[in-house]
Amino acid sequence: MERIPILQMGQFLIVTIQVDMHDRLALTLQDDLTSRISATNAKGVLIDISALEIVDSFIGRMLANISGMARILDAQTVVTGMQPAVAITLVELGLSLPGIKTALNVERGMQLLRAALGDRQADPEQDDVDAPVEA
Fold this sequence. Notes:
Blueprint: E1 6-9, E2 12-16, H1 23-40, E3 44-48, H2 57-72, E4 76-80, H3 84-92, E5 101-103, H4 106-119
Parallel strand pairs: 2-3, 3-4, 4-5
Antiparallel strand pairs: 1-2
Helix pairs in contact: 1-2
């Protein structure tokens, strides 16, 4: 069965969708991602959809569902790389994607997640990638 890789970087999970999304794959991603958030205690999820040229209403709802589930599990969601045609389609379908922050690229998406984590008082026991190393 086809799966989308979920990478962990510190307190964040990163998903880059590089294949055409179909309904079964979206449901599998939703299940895999919620399991990984719970297992790793991730505080943020970045979903890069820059390779997607088409998003239908089901995939749009799945993104909103993933964000809602992540929020319940105490993680923020940022979607990056949305193509203009995808944004137009989502608006035409009437999907507003509540609770999902968007950024133009992965770098800006990571900045949003770091800012959200800073606002919520990061857990001092977690590794902080940007923390200076003491000698």
